[in-house]
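User: I'm new to structure prediction. If I give you an amino acid sequence, what do you actually give back? Let's try with this one:
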Amino acid sequence: MLRVQHLSGGYSGEAVIKNLSFQVKKGELFGILGPNGSGKTTLLKMLSGILPVQAGEITINGVPIQSYSPKMLAQKVAVLSQHSSESFSYTVKETVALGRYAHQKGLFQTWRQTDETVVQRVMQQIGVSRFQEKPIQELSGGEKQRVFLAQALAQEPEILLLDEPTNHLDLSFQKELLDLLREWTMENGLTVISIFHDLNLAGLYCDRLLLLEQGRMKSNHVPNEVLREETIREVYQTNIRKHPHPQVAAPQLVLMPKRQDMVHFGKIDHSMLTLTQEFIMLTTPQPLRTMSSGVIGSGTGWYQSFVNRHVDKDYNCSDHRAEMAAFLTANGFEPAETVGMMTAVILEDVVHQEYAGEGFSIFVVVTAGIGNAVDASKSHLHVVETVPGTINTWVFVNGELSEEAFIQSIMTATEAKTKAIQDLQVIDSVTGTIATGTSTDSILIAATQQGRKLDYAGTITPLGKLIGKAVYECTTEAIKKSRKRKEM
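Assistant: Good question. You get back a string of structure tokens that encode the predicted 3D arrangement of the chain. For your 488 residues, that looks like this:
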């Protein structure tokens, strides 16, 4: 639809844009990125015909833009600038109606029923029709931006150009505006080309991205390719990390600040562990990077308190997460900063031990009972039953773990636990076969993210060897304690 070939141009003969080539397809939401001074606004002005082309060519549907008259070009391209403003106290409807100028004919620009229909439809779709008779100067910033978007869409353009449309808008208006644009591209075939200051919004909403650096193309691809860590670090000269959005297949970037508040507090060990009749607790001076299957604090995050709570074997609750959160709050813990687990095991049977490696160490805490032992390969023979956790494993690493190492730590710990159960001949009471775990096992891997960098935790890596040994020994001892108690 829109094609740019070897484009150069700028102001007063100076080429801000240099030999740029790309194309945008019909119905795409196309984002333009780049640091200040990279040429984003200059490019947009050239695409809209405001600035002349010094070299190269811009075509719309195969026709050079300079071949269009201003009115014809306005039927093809609409522009929503970053700082839209009104000089007169127009009403909302009058402001939106200005977008029909390109379609009006004759000396007196007669207002037709077609114009009225389009204006009313666009105001309804953008959500501003309810205050169409209100002076635009009385609207909020977000409402004004909606009105100016409606004005641009009233032109019925094929291409909509936007210069940082979410600038100065609060979070809810940013989302609403971009949701509207996404909807128009999908349902109406509108092509949207927009400058983005926020890389995460661009990654979340755009089909493709163009990254500029000093007026030249650095990258032109799908968001996941353009928003590479090494590329963004190089172009923006700042430290960032890339991670996936939790709900949709879109890349997101986070800034990595220079941590001046990081306290090197030593290591996690026995001195931080507290045991009461109600719970086992470990609290650290600073939050730890954590991956867990806790009732509270599951998934990945940063947590400072870790609680393994004892409950009766007949514990039953319709909303165990809410009940657990209430328990934590009542006992002085902040649920948002806590990983909370439950166990029916007598807490005095807990086993905890520190293990030292070369330049790092781990601290392992295990509570284990085998009353609901299950052979995972035959679990389909069991009835689904929600009961309190049985084997709960905590692994605290005094070191810096990669994402890969977190996952491998869980795999290695699980293998070691299963081996302990096998060697102790723990039987699945339903199938009569050797169990692999219990139906309610839970695990926690937490790292200080200080000290030695540990990229891997597979079974034969330095960290994996230590986790395997520690979890096997602690699980074995904890199960023996549980069996001994049952025999008493």
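You can read the tokens as a compact description of the fold. Here is one thing that stands out. The CA atoms of residues 424 and 480 lie 9 Å apart.
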